[in-house]
Amino acid sequence: LNRLAPGFSEPLHPDALSRQMLVGTAIAIPLIIVTIASLVYVRKGRTEEFQSYLNQARTSVMTAQTLPLDETSRGEWENAAKMLSLAETYSSSSESQSLREQVQTALDTINLVSRLDFRPLVSGGFGSDAVITGLAASATDLYVLDGKHEIIRHAWGAPERGYEIDTAFECLGTTTVSQELAAPIDFVLQPAPGALGMEGVVAIDEDGTLLYCAPDRQPAIAQLTPPDIGWGRIQAIDVYGDSLYVLDPVMNAVWIYEAAGGFFSGVPKMFFVEEVRELKGAIDLAMAHDELIVLYADGRLDRCRRSLSGSKDDGGRIRVECDPQPYFQDERPGREPTAQIPGAVPVEMDYSPPPEPSLYFLDLLSNSVFHYSLRLVYQGQFMPKELFEEEISAMTLGPPNDLYLAVGSQVYQTR
After folding, report:
1. Of the candidates 38, 157, 51, 135, which has an alpha carbon nearest to the alpha carbon of residue 95?
2. Pair 144, 152: CB distance under 8 Å
3. What is the DSSP string of 143-171?
4. What is the distance between the alpha carbons of residues 412 and 410, in angstroms, rounded to a whole number?
5. Sorting pLDDT into bands at 50, 70 and 90, what band is 218?
6. Exposed / middle / buried, residue 284 (Cβ in 10 Å: 0-12, 13-18, 19+)
7. CA pair distance 414, 402, nearest whole angstrom
């Protein structure tokens, strides 16, 4: 090193910089120059990339606007949305935001998507750490199942004037009830007079214990008579008229319990009397008048009707007829019928009675609700204007046309 740089072996001039300072400067100056150049290059490159994708999005929008607002222009609108997403990875501008709104509105129109204004039902929700896993609603009452704390709460009011939590409501959560009832699997509305002389709810646990609750009434507990073959796994229940329907997919059965004085009791009857229906994967059921509808995890449906040929006095024969394969239909051009709900992973189903009988499906994939007519014709998709930060955990319908969604500890309502 001395031979290569003899100056290192010579004493420094008194006014000269230190050797460490000279070395540091020799290293720092190139680094500073390279850093500044890189920042300029990256900044300019990001701007150019943003502008390039924005131009492509603008071109797709202009092309789409020359076509009908239907399946014909879908490809251009979807390409515009893709280009905007790529552009927004680099930057954003008022123009890109305006284009985004325009593209989203067009795609919503093509997809029959309605973005609704969901309002929180009660201030502060139903407890800061509540996890709502079930809902049931009537015209003036809402029942909320907090799965984390195993509590059923009641709120009363109306959408136009707001709701208030009923602090005097006694149901699941009291010491006596908690000792006799395990964690509830499902609960549904029970119309008046019900078991307690008024409209209320009935909940069920894994061994068939029923809990009846209603405002200003003491809760009541009763035990369903187990089927002769025993319980496999109780998955869901529904009430229609004076009958309780219990879905047990492990035993491939739907059991029917008749009410006596509002309490469901007695030996259960099998819905499927002549054949064992394969119910593996069934997750929910609904009674649409006299028709049983079963929802499967893969998006399929079973639709079955139970009828009596002859009379009961003559020992009439009960027959069950099921559709060979119900198909979901979409009347828009180019859409083929499918056995599963297209583009959805359903986790819950609700039936809306006449005057416009419909089926609503809570979709885990899009965090939204799909709407089909009772003939399984696609009617539309409901999404919030402001997307929820968490997954929708439960859904229910209330008259006349209210939709309730549970997200975390809060319930949101729209109509």
Report:
1. 51
2. yes
3. EEEETTTTEEEEEEEETTTEEEE-TT--S
4. 7
5. very high
6. buried
7. 6
Place of tokens 């509590």: 151
Taking only the tens place, the pLDDT of each residue in 239-266 is 999 999 999 999 999 999 999 999 999 9
SS3 state at 56: helix
Q: How far is CA 169 from CA 87, 156, 173, 181, in A?
A: 53, 11, 10, 17
What residue has token string 């309490």?
263
Determine contact, residues 97/104, Cβ cutoff 8 Å: no
Q: What DSSP line would sit under 342-383, residue for residue? A: TT--EEEEEEE-TTS-EEEEEETTTTEEEEEETT-BEEEEEE
Burial 321-335 (b: 16+ CB within 10 A, else e): ebeeebebbbeeeee
How many CB atoms neighbour CB 213 within 10 A?
Answer: 25
CA distances from 219 to 1, 53, 163, 171, 331 (A): 94, 62, 22, 6, 48
In this structure, are residues 401 and 137 in contact, taking their beta carbons and an 8 Å threshold? no
